[in-house]
Design goal:
The chain is of the alpha+beta class. Helix content is 54%, strand content 15%. The chain is built from 12 helices and 11 strands. Strands 1, 2, 3, 4, 5, 6, 7, 8, 9, 10 and 11 form an 11-stranded mixed sheet that branches. α2 runs antiparallel to α8 and α2 runs parallel beside α10.
Amino acid sequence: MTNDLVPARLSLPDVLRVGAVGLRARRARVVLSALGIAIGIATMVAVVGLSESSRADLMARLDRLGTNLLTAEAGRDAMGQKTELPENAVAMVERIGPVLHATATADVDARIRRSDVVPQERTAGVTTQAVRLDLLSALGGEVDEGSWLDPAGEQLPTTVLGAVAAERLGITRTGETIMMNDIRVVVVGILEPIELVPNLDRVAMVGFPAAERYFGFDGHPTTVFERSRDASVEDVRAVLARTVSPGDTTGVKVSRPSDALAAKAATGEGLTALMLGLGAVALLVGGVGVANTMVISVLERRREIGLRRSLGATRGAVRLQFLTESLLLAALGGAAGALLGAAATYGFARVQGWTAVVPPWSLAGGLGATLLIGVLAGLYPAIRASRLHPMQALQAA
């Protein structure tokens, strides 16, 4: 009675040890091959991380600024004529049940110059608007320099400049004067940028009474701002135009300023998809590099393969050896790329003042894609190595 010889099976530590030998023997080539994988994974992790960090910062800004602000702006009627909002538009809006606060601004026909020696046609791109005293609190704005208009200041030729307007006029401190038409006006404050209503950054603001007294303002607001309860925003939006202009709603444009920030987040998603595609291309190129390295490794190590086959190694053992090498090579690049991508995300987010967010699924997905690339890249070289006949391999070597 004879016993058939059964080939010994390699344990997992032995498989890893045998696979690592080939990598240690060709370190420069391994590093260069792994670099392609690392670049692809780093790109994908960094793109996802920066996108999530930016979105988290945007959502935090929306939470801080509030999404319950609506605006009703005078536009043009069905005949193309410019419309006017009624003088009591704010009071009418405040009668809507869910409305918590309403205020208004109005365009004023006053040309702004830095001084009286500047020609009147050179306005520096700054316009004038009349504002109510409660505008700043309604919009959540803050004063960067000086102070906001007070009950006395809204009666006098004083102004508060938006951040961009102050920069264009070269105003760096309060107490300086500018010209509105032929009237010298004192700058009492400079605002920080107002994120929800960025067009106010480019205007000079005066009180309603001062606009009527010095610039012939007729008292009709141009834009009404209102804040309501979050749950009632859409309900208020549905009736806001009819409330402001009961006779003709076509001349009133109702909008939600926070929608612009939300649209920015949606635009970022499209860019993220594009960058992920570029990262996938880099990862594919890295996979081709790994496959090339493994093919060359098989050609260079035919003597080793023949010797192992002569000593009893099965085709499966040879396939497993080279497939393990490919997986280890890809995993090395993937781990390095994941760390590099996470580090890039944290560094850039810190510079931008964001809270860094690196989703765990992006790291897990990157490593999973790396292992898949390693299997696909090493499969053909491993099969080719296992099919080498021991005598042919030794003679070719």
